[in-house]
Write a structure and sequence with these properties.
It comes from Dorea formicigenerans. With about 150 residues, this protein is an alpha+beta fold. The protein contains 4 helices and 8 strands. Strands 5-6-1-7-8 form a 5-stranded mixed β-sheet, with helices on one face. It has a 3-stranded antiparallel β-sheet with strand order 2-3-4, with no helix packed on it.
Length: about 150
């Protein structure tokens, strides 16, 4: 596990969909509006409808796994979430959330946090603290390979 975020999508159904919509609003308010290249700019019309410029009207369950994961990380920091549902486009937001609140995530793939990005991540598998991708890559590779052998 990488200490910097935490996520497990546990709930589906109407209550979760309403939760996702409210938490998506929280993400924009708490972290500033994500850039267009990070998330498609969508308008939350109601608890059942989001209007996407790409997809048209969609229900909240059609938000990407990465957006749902970021919302849960931001709003449920005491839980551990599987950030493997996130693409590399979520990495900078995971780091931003991690700067504001202490979170833990589970990663089962090599996520790029940026070649020149500086950060403080504790790799919980061995307790190491890393500050760059150069330091993270060998450790992540080691632990990911160990997981494959289990």
């Amino acid at each position: 596990m990488f200490r910097c975020g935490d996520l497990t999508i546990l709930l589906l159904g109407l209550a979760f969909h309403c939760f996702v919509i409210e938490k998506r609003k929280s993400l924009c308010h708490s972290l500033g509006r994500p850039s267009r290249s990070d998330f498609v700019q969508s308008e939350v019309v109601s608890s059942e409808c989001i209007v996407s410029p790409v997809l048209g009207q969609i229900p909240p369950e059609r938000l990407s796994g990465g957006v749902k994961t970021l919302l849960l990380i931001l709003n449920e920091p005491d839980k551990i979430f599987n950030a493997s549902t996130c693409g590399d486009n979520c990495a900078k937001w995971i780091l931003e959330i991690g700067k504001r609140i202490d979170v833990t995530i589970n990663l089962r793939h090599m996520m790029s946090f940026g070649k020149d990005t500086q950060f403080d991540i504790e790799v919980q598998n061995g307790g190491e603290i890393v500050h760059s991708m150069r330091e993270l890559l060998p450790l992540a590779s080691k632990y990911l390979n160990e997981m494959k052998q289990e």
